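[job 4471] stage=fold_predict status=RUNNING
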Amino acid sequence: MFKRLDPFGNPNVGVYVRATSRHLFVPPGITPLNVKDLEDALGHPSIECTVGGSPLIGSLVAANKNGAVVADFATDDEMAVFSKAGLAVMRLEQSRLNAAGNNVLCNDHGAVVHPDLPAKSVKAMVEVLGVEVERASIAGLSTVGTAAAATNRGVLTHPLASEAELAFVKKALHAPARIGTVNHGHGLVGAGLAANQNGVAVGSRTTGIELGRIDEALGFLD
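[job 4471] inference complete, writing structure tokens
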């Protein structure tokens, strides 16, 4: 299912929302109608949370069905929300790159991360996410979590991603990868939408043509 919405009046749904194949995390203050649209699209009851008091859950959290990687300024109580949801959790203790959702792209089969993340962080992610983790850039962008959006069925990437980058992402995440845009031509698709195997929530400015590309890339045409 597809839903168009603008949380807090902002079309960048992926900045505020983090969805996995089993979970839907949303910030407090989002409207009841937005919550209903997200639950309808993504197929899970919402779990309210913050990170360091911030509503930017999509930017600050990377997660799959096994675990969550969270910015290092999350409090113990905030980390406990993810633990109670049945996830292994870790803080991304790298002050310059601690926005985990921006710097980690993952699904239930693999992960691609910012090339400058240290080996210690990458090793910890392997344990928490339960998948192999590879360093790479997408469309020349190191913030791979904003440059692409991944589900278990497919990956949507920035329109300037090269064929080599698409091939790398496909191999790393074990899912087909295609280019596309959101919100009437914006390439930072990971910031513009939240998705899982059930559906997609995307900003209201996203065009019908873009929705078709998203549909194809994320595997809803099977």
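[job 4471] summary: The chain has one domain: 2-217.
[job 4471] exit 0
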